[in-house]
Design goal:
Alpha-Beta Plaits, about 230 residues, alpha/beta, Rossmann fold, globular, single chain
Length: about 230
């Protein structure tokens, strides 16, 4: 998936880095060259660009983008202009960050209905992590789509992804399987790093594996209640 993230503040840069780690092709854009240079080695591509300028924005490969996120925070004017220009280009899967209810209302008046409130999402993320200790990370992409990163439940150990049937049972998709990798220390080896591995329906779930799942809020909640609450 090719993703464009505009605004590399705390929210935008974190999202861009996580999506890059998941194996997606990410273009991170900010008009602050210092931020662009700071994350150059952690995001697939980075560019210093003022996206509130129509000509500058059109220099991006917008026709090839599968997902666009306007993550600009306090610069209200730049956020609105960028969002309006992308909406004008009829970008598929356009998500825009809002920092106030008024900001959200104005975005919606432009026909943009995928509006994000990162601060609220962070609180929900924290609540989810506290309640479910086996959840490592939780990302609410929109009101309809969530991504869940968790340790594989013990009942899955030794089973294949095909046996578990995430898609059929819960209508959720496996985005990634991460397996522990030994990192050598001076006196002993410790498993403290994870790496993505190619996976198929025949991939076996081993102890300490991590899974990254994607689905609707209702389906993710159903999965959590059935598989994690009794763990």
């Amino acid at each position: 998936m090719k993703t464009l993230i505009i605004g590399l503040g705390n929210f935008g840069s974190t999202l861009a880095k996580e999506l890059t780690k998941m194996g997606h092709e990410v273009i991170g854009v900010d008009k602050d060259k210092h931020k662009v240079d700071l994350y150059a080695n952690e995001i697939t591509y980075t560019m210093a660009l003022d996206t509130s300028d129509r000509h500058a924005l059109n220099s991006l490969p917008l026709d090839d983008i599968d997902l666009a996120v306007v993550a600009i925070g306090e610069d209200f004017g730049s956020s609105m202009l960028t969002s309006a220009l992308l909406q004008e280009r009829k970008i598929n899967n356009l998500y825009c960050r809002a920092i106030t209810d008024l900001h959200k209302e104005i975005l919606e008046s432009l026909g943009i209905h995928n509006v994000l409130f990162p601060e609220q999402m962070s609180a929900e993320h924290f609540a989810r992590s506290v309640i479910h200790k086996h959840v490592i990370d939780y990302y609410q992409i929109s009101d309809a789509v969530e991504i869940l990163k968790l340790y594989a439940p013990p009942k899955y150990l030794g089973l294949t992804l095909g046996n578990i049937r995430f898609s059929k049972e819960y209508n959720i998709q496996v985005l990634s399987v991460m397996k522990p990798r030994e990192k050598k220390k001076l006196f002993k080896a410790a498993i403290n790093e994870y790496t993505d591995v190619p996976f198929t329906d025949d991939t076996v779930i081993d102890e300490k594996d991590c899974l990254i799942l994607c689905g609707s809020q209702n389906n993710i909640e159903k999965f959590i209640k059935r598989e994690l609450d009794s763990w």
